[in-house]
Amino acid sequence: MNQSSAKKIKNGFTLIELLVVIAVIGVVFSVIIATNPLRYVQEAKDSRKKQDLSKLVLSMEACFTKSNESYTYCDEQGELIQGGFLQTAISEVVLAADGCVSVLLEAPPYPAFPYWRYSSESGKADYAPSGC
Question: Does residue 121 register a pLDDT over 90?
Answer without folding.
Answer: no
